[in-house]
Specification:
With about 375 residues, the chain is an alpha+beta fold. The protein is built from six helices and 26 strands. It has helices spanning about 10-20, 75-80, 150-160, 215-220, 275-290, 335-340, and strands at about 1-10, 35-40, 45-50, 55-60, 65, 70-75, 90-100, 105-120, 120-125, 140-145, 175-180, 185-190, 190-200, 205-210, 230-235, 235-240, 245-250, 270-275, 295-300, 305-310, 315-320, 325, 330-335, 350-355, 360-365, 370-375. Helix 5 (about 275-290) packs antiparallel against helix 6. About 35% of the residues are buried.
């Protein structure tokens, strides 16, 4: 016995929705989480993508629909739709129910397939039943509103420093520390710590939220052009809702690092230099130096001297730059880490030093209004 349900939708609307929710689906996963969940009713189509820890969904308006139906399709439908010109697409979900004999026993077998009709023909695709697709939800919730621009700005400022080592789950994401008079965004991989403080207040009680890496990238993308985002915190999950797009992320269990404790209390040596000037020099030195360590020797004095060498390949480079400093110090820093930090700082960058064995604080010489950006970079041992 077969049952059919059909809905019609504009190709561009469907493709845009599929590409949005498809970005949360990992390349390697188990069925049905390799697929996108379709849930259609008389008025709309709800698309859901998930990697079991994060879930992204968006509703789409349909032109017409014959009833309620749900099924799962693989992401290959995205590639198919990209080849079609703009037009209404008809999708028919066909559910087949039949008896199957195994020895002396009989069981009911249910299969699904989807027929996609377009102006030049039709395409038949296998579909998965939605029964095993467990959707995430948020319980024991408390909701507050956050300006989308401020949230995106904070995430983008620090996300590149987030750890990707699954053995350190608390570092694999961006921590948002909402305080009484500020919102602090922090990410660290234990070599670099990026901290962005937004001094604009939001109407909620103090709370800490850790957003994992997969959700950070998706959230930053979905916030573009939005005005506000509603954040709902539950016991085990967090919901971010921007207009009609919803992202649910499971909370990571544990306590986040005491990030303020790693900043040195006294930083007597200061050096100011044009960000573009030093970044250009670092780009050259990293290409010459040891690719394994990426170590740069930095000598601060009346001028700023940068040098590196690769002993194995007999390569070396030295550059001397004009800078304004308050003392003398020689220290080793990771060039590739500096390449990640300095693009976040326009105009003049300020280096603050304690001694050659302690971390270095890097920040703009002049902070933007109502914000503060700081980077902490661990020092490296050098051969004098």
């Amino acid at each position: 016995m077969e049952t059919k349900n059909e809905f019609k939708i504009e190709k561009s609307s469907l493709l845009q929705g599929l590409m949005l929710v498809g970005q949360i689906i990992p390349n390697k996963a188990i069925v049905p989480y390799t697929h996108i969940l379709f849930e259609a009713n008389k008025e709309s189509l709800l698309l859901t993508g998930s990697d079991t820890e994060n879930q992204l969904q968006t509703p789409l308006k349909v032109i017409s629909s014959t009833g309620i139906v749900s099924f799962c399709l693989s992401k290959e439908i995205i590639g198919i739709l990209k080849t079609l010109p703009e037009q209404p697409i008809s999708i028919t979900a066909i559910r087949k129910k039949e008896e199957e004999k195994i020895g002396d026993k009989t069981r009911i077998k249910i299969t699904m397939r989807v027929e996609l009709k377009h102006s030049a023909g039709k395409i038949n695709l296998p579909a998965e039943l939605p029964d095993l697709y467990n959707k995430l939800s948020v319980k024991n919730e408390e909701t507050f509103q956050f300006p989308a621009h401020n949230l995106k700005r904070g995430l983008d400022a620090v996300k590149k420093a987030a750890d990707n080592n699954d053995l350190r789950p608390m570092g694999c994401g961006v921590y948002i520390d909402i305080k009484e008079n500020s919102i602090v965004f922090v990410a660290t991989d234990r070599n670099v710590l990026l901290k962005f403080t937004d001094f604009n207040k939001i109407n909620t009680s103090p709370i800490g939220i850790l957003i994992n890496n997969a959700s950070v990238n998706v959230l930053s993308s979905m916030l573009k052009g939005k005005e506000n985002v509603d954040i709902t915190t539950g016991e085990k999950s967090i919901l971010f809702k921007a207009e009609n797009i919803e992202l649910i992320s499971r909370k990571t269990e544990g306590k986040y690092y005491n990030y303020d404790s790693v900043f040195p209390e006294e930083l007597p040596i200061e050096a100011n230099i044009e960000s573009e000037l030093i970044l250009s020099a670092i780009d050259r030195l990293v290409l010459v130096g040891d690719s394994a360590s990426s170590i740069l020797k930095i000598e601060v004095g009346p001028e700023l001297k940068l040098s590196t060498e690769d002993v194995f390949f007999s390569k070396s480079a030295t550059e001397t730059l004009s800078a304004v400093s308050t003392g003398n110090i020689t220290i080793g820093l990771n060039g590739k880490c500096l390449q990640e930090i300095l693009p976040e700082i326009p105009d003049t960058v300020q280096f603050l030093f304690c001694d050659s064995t302690r971390p270095v604080v890097i920040q703009p010489a002049e902070q933007e209004e109502n914000t503060e950006f700081k980077a902490l970079l661990m020092s490296m041992m050098i051969n004098n």
